[in-house]
Design brief:
With 378 residues, the protein is mainly α. It has helices at residues 10-18, 21-29, 32-44, 51-56, 58-67, 77-86, 94-97, 102-109, 112-115, 124-139, 147-159, 166-171, 173-182, 192-201, 209-212, 217-224, 227-230, 239-260, 262-273, 280-284, 287-296, 308-318, 327-344, 353-356, 367-377. The protein has three domains: 31-120, AGR_C_984p-like; 123-233, AGR_C_984p-like, CATH 1.10.3700.10; 262-377, AGR C 984p-like (AGR_C_984p-like, Orthogonal Bundle). It is built from 25 helices and no strands.
């Protein structure tokens, strides 16, 4: 859309989609092409047993690649086969050595190297917990072939999938006990009030009880048994199936937004990825994230060609990545980005200059510099 035709600001367009993200995603899912490809994926992905079968079915493979933001690399099948066959277990694996972590995320989701024929149907709550329970038992001196252990694992895998809520989970003391021991939380089994709060609050809020614990096992447990976010589907959730369709909807939403205003696409993408960032190098390794940060901090596009250490220093001098885990600070950063994006691209909608001229929150440009940019824009 040409700048002269734009009426709604970048930030307003972003908010329109982000404010009720579930509704926005539901609208995307009903688009005929999206619904058709999703139906094909859901009907066929569960039958895939090998890397060759996966990559060989272009509709399945392309759907998965798009879900991970890798559509532009769908043609490079030999490249992707190499990564899928190597997996991500070893630090030296090809996917782990790439700066762009989307590849490692893709391989982790479709982890044929570690899980073989069960890769696409792997469920963290069912299969992951059962495996962890066996490892914990082994570490405590139990023979992996012990009949009692094998019976417990079989019972757990057959019955955990019937659990649809926190209440049912905690009431099924045998299943709950196995899960708690699997994640090294056996000593907290009797502390039901505490664990109920852990499960009910989930992990999406940085201030949730699980996220406030110094022991990461609580957040891991709440992430796997994420009833707060996935509800009744928690114990049957498969990253390669349900996780991929969720990612596909979000990716499509962002791409659709970008057709009207690329600033909105970038804002939505940054909102999705920023809370999980732990390093400036992750930003620099992702073109979209890097563009958002450079724009928000007033760094020129040419800065992307500067020495990496110089880029890191400049960003870290202006931005504390830990702040992006705070929803309010993240929202403030995105607001700043959208305003700066419109100034940079000379869009006709008027940025909220009052926002830009607020006292510095560590996000970069001084008031004098912002005033200068605004004058240049005019």
């Amino acid at each position: 859309m040409p700048p002269e035709a734009r009426v709604v600001s970048t930030y307003a367009s972003y908010q329109l989609l982000a404010r009720d993200i579930d509704r926005s995603l539901a609208t995307v899912s009903k688009q005929p092409a999206v619904a058709r490809e999703t139906a094909y994926f859901n009907e066929n992905i569960g039958n895939v047993k090998t890397v060759e079968e996966f990559v060989g079915d272009s509709r399945l493979f392309n759907y998965a690649m798009k879900a991970h933001g890798l559509s532009d690399m769908a043609y490079a099948k030999a490249f992707m086969i190499k990564m899928l066959n190597e997996g991500v277990s070893e630090p030296t694996a090809f996917a782990n050595k790439l700066t762009d972590k989307r590849y490692a995320e893709f391989v982790k989701t479709f982890n044929f190297a570690a899980r073989g024929e069960e890769a696409v149907n792997f469920s963290p709550a069912r299969d992951g917990t059962a495996a962890k329970y066996q490892i914990e038992a082994f570490n405590n001196g139990v023979d992996p072939l012990n009949e009692t252990l094998q019976a417990q694992v079989k019972y757990f895998k057959e019955n955990i999938v019937k659990v649809t809520s926190v209440d049912e989970f905690m009431a099924a003391t045998d299943l709950y006990g196995i899960a708690m021991k699997a994640y090294g939380l056996g000593d907290r089994i009797e502390d039901t009030a505490f664990m109920r709060q852990i499960l009910e609050e989930g992990v999406s809020d940085p201030d949730s009880l699980a996220n406030r614990q110094t022991d990461a096992k609580y957040a891991e447990f709440a992430s796997v048994f994420n009833f707060a976010e996935r509800g009744a589907g928690t114990t049957t959730y498969r990253p390669a199936v349900e996780g991929t369709t969720e990612s596909y909807m979000r990716q499509t939403l962002e791409e659709n937004a970008g057709q009207q205003n690329d600033g909105v696409r970038l804002a939505l993408y940054f909102e999705r990825k920023a809370p999980s960032l732990t390093s400036t190098f992750q930003i620099l390794g992702d073109k979209a994230l890097a563009e958002v940060v450079r724009t928000a901090l007033g760094l020129p596009d040419a800065f992307a060609s500067a020495d990496v250490d110089r880029q890191v220093a400049a960003i870290e001098n202006r931005l504390d990545i830990a702040d992006l885990k705070d929803p309010e600070k993240l929202a403030s950063f995105i607001s700043r980005f959208t305003a700066m994006y419109e100034m940079k691209n000379n869009m006709s909608s008027t940025p909220n200059i009052s926002l830009l001229l607020q006292p510095s929150t560590g996000f970069g440009l001084s008031t004098d510099m912002l005033m200068t940019l605004q004058k240049l824009r005019g």
